[in-house]
Amino acid sequence: MLDYDEEADAYDASRGGEPRAEAAAAAVLGLIPDRPGRLLDVACGTGLVTRRLAAARPALRVTGADLAAAMARRAARRLPGAVLRADGRRLPFADASFDAVTGVWLLHLLPGPAEVRAVVAECARVLRPGGVYVTTVDKAAAHDVGSDIDAVLALRPRRPAQDAADAVAGHALAAGLLPAGQAAFPGHGQGRSPRSTVADLRRGWFTLLPPDDPRTEELAARLARLPDQDRRRPDPAFRLHAFRKPTDT
Predict the structure, then answer these.
(1) What is the pTM of this model?
(2) Neighbouring-strand partners of residue 62
(3) What CA–CA distances, in Å, run from 55 to 25, 62, 66, 96, 149?
(4) How far apart are the C-alpha atoms of 187 and 191, rounded to whole Å?
(5) What are the pLDDT digits (tens) for 95-147?
(6) φ, ψ at 121 (rounded to 5°)
(7) Do the beta carbons of residue 68 and residue 2 sit within 8 Å?
(8) Which of 41, 55, 70, 148 could pair with 5 in a Cys bridge, judged by C-beta atoms 3.0 to 4.6 Å apart?
(9) pLDDT higher than threshold 90 for residue 8
(10) Please, are residues 210 and 204 in contact by the beta-carbon 8 Å criterion?
């Protein structure tokens, strides 16, 4: 997995920047009731999306939390006094503290089902009855847009998707949450080009292919033979699922 303390400085520029953040925030807000209350953004990263959530809903008191110190510091500059370091598996908040909890691009990073279950359970625990939990699902699948690059990458080893939609729904149900809607948004500026994909391979972006693995260079050679080396293929489309905590719990 990437070291997000090391990634912090370049994170926004390499992940679609403001356009992607705007699209993500709009999609998240479409799943959250527009009323006063408190919102927790788990794994808030640099705070780019979190800041937009706070700006769009002044009646919401928004708190950001991230485990990586460098990410949390950057987010704190965007939302002074509203960001803390925290592990999503052990949130430092009392039960029923928030009216909404969001987790954009978190579950796919976790090492296994037990960790995903723990995060979903914690998000449910701190959610008030009637509150909504929103999370991205199927992150890796969103990047497969059916391009020639994807045809080459189909040869790579893959780890099981920890954020598969059905699995996340199962964890949510076990935590007492019920389905409450879905949405999607484009990953602006994240379409892959052959040349950028080779660079990602060589920096260890694909978790089961370390840079020194011979298969890395085999795939790099295949990618280097594709046409239009610097033309980005279509952007991914990310998916959000929302879950509501029943009021009778």
Answers:
(1) 0.89
(2) 39
(3) 10, 9, 19, 24, 37
(4) 8
(5) 999 999 999 989 998 999 999 999 999 999 999 999 999 999 999 899 999 99
(6) -65, -40
(7) no
(8) 70
(9) no
(10) yes
pLDDT of 6 strictly over 70? no
- Per-residue pLDDT tens over the stretch 62-81: 999 999 998 899 999 999 99
Q: Which two tokens stand for residue 111?
A: 């090492």
HSE value, Cβ hemisphere, 13 Å, CA-based, for 90: 2
Query: 158 and 140 in contact (C-beta within 8 Å)?
Result: yes
Whole-number Å distance between alpha carbons of 87 and 102: 14
List, in order of start, the domains of the chain with CATH numbers. 4-143+159-191+235-244 (3.40.50.150)
Choose among 172, 51, 173, 71: nearest CA to 123. 172
Quickly state the pLDDT bin for 195 (edges 50, 70, 90). Answer: very high
| C-alpha to C-alpha distances, 248 to 133, 169, 177, nearest whole angstrom | 17, 20, 11
Which residues are within 8 A (CB) of 239 and not within 5 positions of it... i.e. 6 or more apart?
136, 137, 138, 142, 165, 182, 183, 184
pLDDT for residue 15 is more than 70 = no
- Return the structure tokens found at 62: 């928004």
For the chain, where are the alpha helices, taking DSSP H only?
4-14, 17-29, 48-56, 69-78, 113-125, 139-142, 148-153, 165-174, 194-202, 214-224
Cβ–Cβ < 8 Å for 237, 188:
no
Nearest to 231 by CA among 196, 186, 204: 196
Give the position of tokens 């999503």.
88
Q: Is the pLDDT of residue 207 over 90?
A: no
